[in-house]
Design a protein that fits this description.
Elements (H helix, E strand, L loop, with lengths): L1 H15 L2 H24 L4 H6 L15 H8 L1 H34 L5 H11 L4 H15 L5 H24 L4 H9 L4 H12 L1 H16 L3 H6 L7 H11 L4 H21 L1 H13 L1
Helix pairs in contact: 2-14, 4-14, 5-8, 5-11, 5-13, 6-8, 8-11, 11-14, 11-15, 13-14
Length: 287
């Protein structure tokens, strides 16, 4: 009986790992992508067509497709300025976290200084601090500094809460680099800065790329922090789209292309660094 059950399980496992499982995964992927496809199609349909029928009707009447929605979107000063604000917030917040996190990760991994392990435990402890706890105190601090509502305040907030994870991730990755390699570079006369730029950074490229992708996605898609710390002149695209929903409610001809624009940029960034991201994940798994 046991052998019969084992053989049955083996046959089921063999079928699951073959074509049946692939077909199932393809169907799940198509079902998962359906809202995205609907958003893309809706972004090319006029408001009258959107109100009259579902997005799938475009396959029978492709004449509904038009670029007027994107033209109107580009003529909308609120959306275009918010898109620029999103870039001005996301790019500095990502670069600062990557640069500072790389330097700090190298220091915690390979430099000896008093209290190194204790300071690293503090960094690890900061990983569990929720953003909501710091909102009110930081709002008061930014008001005293005169940067509340400015782009720099949002950038500093994202940098502050992005650094603990960045330091933790890169420190663990840098610590796996062979010590002999670093000692050989020091024997050749390399200082700490040269060692960091010529040895650590190239070897840690996959981990740094993975961190950059994560940070970029977190900041680009953020709405909570931006909703609190920005004003009408510095609000990013997520807040601008949310304001469009509150003000008009049914202007899908503006919301659909704006939402798709907000979604397509992170996808482009991810696919541009996909190889480095996969290398970083696989390296971490092997180590």
């Amino acid at each position: 009986m046991t052998r019969l059950a084992s053989s049955l399980v083996s046959r089921l496992a063999g079928k699951a790992s073959g074509g049946v499982m692939r077909v199932f995964l393809i169907l799940v992927a198509l079902f998962w992508l359906m809202p995205t496809v609907g958003l893309l199609v809706s972004s090319f349909r006029g408001p009258t067509d959107i109100a009259a029928s579902g997005w799938w009707k475009v396959f029978t009447t492709p004449a509904q497709l038009t670029l007027d929605n994107y033209k109107d979107l580009l003529d909308n000063d609120t959306v275009t300025s918010s898109f620029l604000n999103t870039v001005l917030i996301t790019v500095p917040a990502t670069l600062l976290v990557v640069i500072i996190g790389s330097l700090a990760g190298y220091a915690f991994a390979w430099l000896d200084f008093p209290g190194r392990d204790w300071w690293f435990m503090v960094v690890v402890g900061l990983l569990v601090v929720p953003i909501q706890i710091a909102l009110i105190p930081i709002v008061d601090l930014f008001r005293e500094l005169g940067i509340f509502g400015d782009t720099i305040g949002v950038v500093l907030f994202h940098v502050g809460f992005g650094l603990p994870f960045a330091i933790f991730l890169l420190r663990n990755f840098f610590a796996e680099i062979p010590r002999e390699l670093l000692e050989a570079a020091r024997l050749d006369g390399a200082g700490e800065l040269r060692l960091f730029t010529t040895v650590i950074m190239p070897l840690g490229g996959p981990a740094i790329a993975s961190l950059g992708i994560f940070q970029f996605l977190w900041v680009w898609n953020d709405m909570l922090v931006a909703l609190i710390f920005t004003n009408a002149d510095s609000q990013p695209l997520t807040v601008a789209l949310q304001q469009q929903v509150r003000q008009f409610g049914n202007n899908i001809d503006v919301l659909a292309p704006g939402a798709f624009l907000s979604m397509i940029v992170p996808l482009v960034v991810f696919f541009a660094f996909q190889r480095q991201f996969v290398s970083g994940v696989m390296a971490g798994a092997v180590k």
